Prior knowledge:
This protein is of the alpha+beta class. The protein has two domains: 2-72 and 99-184 and 276-351, FAD/NAD(P)-binding domain; 188-274 and 359-393, D-Amino Acid Oxidase, subunit A, domain 2 (D-Amino Acid Oxidase, Chain A, domain 2, 2-Layer Sandwich). Helices cover 35% and strands 30% of the residues. Helix 1 runs parallel beside helix 6 (102-115), helix 8 (305-326) runs antiparallel to helix 9 and helix 10 (365-380) crosses helix 11. The structure holds adenosine-5-diphosphoribose (APR) and P-hydroxybenzoic acid. Adenosine-5-diphosphoribose binds next to helix 1, strand 9 and helix 8.
Amino acid sequence: MRTTVGIIGAGPAGLLLARLLHNAGIDSVVLESRDRAYVERRQRAGILEQGTVDVLRAAGAGERMDREGLRHDGIELRFSRRRHRVDFPALTGGRSVMVYAQTEVCKDLIALQLESGGPLLFETEALAVEDAGTDRPRVRFRRGGESGEGGEGGTEEVLECDYVVGCDGFWGVARAAVPDGRTFERTYPFGWLGILADVAPSHDELVYARHDRGFALLSMRSPSVSRLYLQVPADTDAESWSDEEIWDELERRLETDDDWTLRRGPITQKSVTPMRSYVHEPMRHGRLFLAGDAAHIVPPTGAKGLNLAVGDVVTLARALVHRAATGSDELLDTYSATCLRRVWQAERFSYDMTTLLHGAPDATPFEERLQLARLDRITSSRAAETDLAEAYTGFPVG
Ligand code: APR
Ligand code: PHB
């Protein structure tokens, strides 16, 4: 098999890259180890920055998003039983975000890719990227094999490419083919217990709550489906929490001084997400490029994961199109540095939001007071609040 751009992974990064390249007349093949149903059901944050919304629209993938997505003009910060609304358009010159689940973004992009006949192979696992430092990089892969089970089933094949892009997430194989890389990492001693519930959201915007018992987040998937999270110790088993215990704890952490109440409903999904900050530098070796979670992870507090992946592949698609049109490697050569600048801004913001709102198990009373002082500052200084609003609604790509 041969293609111009071999893409490993059909998450938001790989799927959008394939779409952008298709629109520019560049062929690609996408290899995805999981099946279609799994990819379309995997729950992740679904906050789209204004820039991400614009990119999806321009790529021809915005039709259902524009019909079903919910435009949000702010978020609420909750602490010490107080509520404070951050008004995005007023602070940023008109910017807002869109609530449209990552599962829906993936479904839309998969449908488009299959419609246009672009090769998208599910249950096809990349085993290794080879010869990335040459002008004939290759991906060794296995179709119909059992993912992760040490080589049983399927036949081994090779995809020969002009370029390979690792969009295979944090646990993928592409990163290992970038020699002499440097990694920067921080893990957190807590995770998020997330639930999906069949109940209308208890507020019309997202609520980020700091509480002495730990962080809580109220989010949503649609006008009738709520998504909520609780900070829990990192090694928590989701099944160790009963539904009633989850609702009771959410109620405590989200409590206010006014008459706000939490609506309860049947919980349809429960899982624990670990929290990690991670960056791999550089994001390129020869003709292999890393994009999205394959190169960097942010804790979900700032809702930046998907938006960063979109920024990477927009930058890469532009560079590949430039190369095809002019023969110049100029933009491919600056890809890693261009992306990393934006990545580190998102790392900074996600770290700040995480430490602003979570209780560390070993936090001293001094640190707890500082946390409250930071919240006080954001909610009483327009400059501090603008800093948060600008970062939340997104940094420019490129
Ligand atoms: N071969 C083929 N596919 C692979 C392999 C492999 N060896 N390893 C992983 N994959 C697939 C995974 O099954 C997954 O579908 O790569 C895909 C990676 O997708 P994501 O983890 O969603 O990563 P990315 O596309 O970078 O997403 C960026 O968007 O999904 C949100 O918040 C999430 O931060 C994430 C962001
Ligand atoms: C979500 O809806 O899943 C979500 C929203 C905002 C976040 C994280 C997750 O910061």
